[in-house]
Each structure stands twice: as C-alpha cells, then as structure tokens.
Amino acid sequence: MTDDLFATGPAAELSMGRIDGHIPYLAVDNIFADPAAVREAALALPYASGTAHYPGRIARFPSGDPSLTTFLEKVLALVSREYVPLLPPMPDGQRLSAPRGVDTDFAITDTHPGELSPRQREPHIDAIPVFGLVYLNPEPRGGTLFFKPRGDTGAKAEPAGYPRPSEQLEVCGHIEGRFNRLAIYPGFILHSGEIKGEWISGKERFEAPRLTQRIMFF
After folding, report:
1. How far is the CA of 41 from the CAs of 14, 36, 61, 130, in angstroms?
2. Cβ within 8 Å of residue 170, ≥6 positions away
3. Which residue range is the domain that position 75 belongs to?
4. CA-CA-CA-CA torsion for 8, 9, 15, 18, nearest 10 degrees?
5. How buried is 170 (Cβ within 10 angstroms: 0-12 exposed, 13-18 middle, 19+ buried)?
6. pLDDT tens digits, 37-56
7. So what's the pLDDT on residue 151?
8. Quick one: average pLDDT of 151-168?
9. What CATH number should be reported for the domain holding residue 108?
C-alpha cells in the first residue's frame, strides 16, 4: 500500500449530465491516480452486512489515513463549488446549502437476484441529499439508474430481481459505471445500482465483485 493511495489522477476530467432532463449530476473520470491499488486495498478490508436496502456487504477504511482525508477534502470542495449551486430545490421546496461534512465506506454487491428482500428489489431514496460513488470495477458491473413513476397503472406487480423498468417505474437517468469514475448525484431521486448480466448469479460475484466507494455528504 502506498503512502498516497487515494491520490487524485493528473488526467481527472469533470463532466455534467442531467437526470430527467433537468436535475444535474457530475462525473469525474480518472479520479484516482492508481485505481487498481485502491481496489486491491479496499477488497482486503473486513466486510460485514450492509443496511436493509443494500444487497451486499460494507467495509470502512481505517480512520485517520491522511491520503483518504485529503481526497475527501478535495471532493467536498468540488461538491460545494461545482455541484450544490446547480441543484434545484428539494421535493420539500428547500434549497441545499454547502455540505458541512463527508463520510465514506466501500461496498460490494454480491447478493444473488433470487435472494433479494422485497426492499432490495425496489429503487430507494437516500437519507442524505447528495451522494458520491466511485466505480472500481475493471469488468462491466453496471452504473446507477434513476427512476420516476409512470403514473397510475393500477395494481402494483411484485418485482423480481434487481430494480429495473416496470409498469410502474421508468428509467429517467443513467450514469455509466466506468472504471475509476466518481459520480455525484442527488440522493432524493429514486435510484438503484444497475445490476444485470450473468455475473451476479454465479461465482463472479465473489471472485470479481462489484466494488464501489460510497461518499456521503452532510
């Protein structure tokens, strides 16, 4: 492990997209100078079960690491400067102020589609207004999907597998899960991981797991 494991890359590139045509998200490609080293260090952490809606396991990096602290300070400044001023009012009409703090952990998605709880089969809203995610997967493991209701479609069918478009919900935004990309998006929009393909049903979900670094802004 290097002394500056979480150093940002010299070729980091910022871009912006829109969810449902008007809600912005930010993407920073090539965020880490050595993403393979970050992935290796993260996978070596001790993982435990995540929250009720998360279909996998969570681990935290040891506290006090100066490289991680510096990285989080940079990302916090980016969100305050480049992202929060662009956000429309939240559903309750309030406007967000600059975040006062930030926290982070690492998450592995490895729950078989047939073993998901009812809560895990539906998109969710985060308890925090702004969320960050670094995709740390060299192999295709999906990005993030955003959903909105289609309207009154009658009785709700019981979903199966990971969240996807349905008679009740349509996809209104998508962030591609490129390796070494940081995505910053609003937590108050219905969303879920884009989990599809044969890997989530077989050994690959353990041997080459879907790994993300989660960043929570408060």
Report:
1. 25, 9, 9, 26
2. 147, 148, 149, 150
3. 30-217
4. -50
5. middle
6. 999 999 999 999 988 889 99
7. 75
8. 80
9. 2.60.120
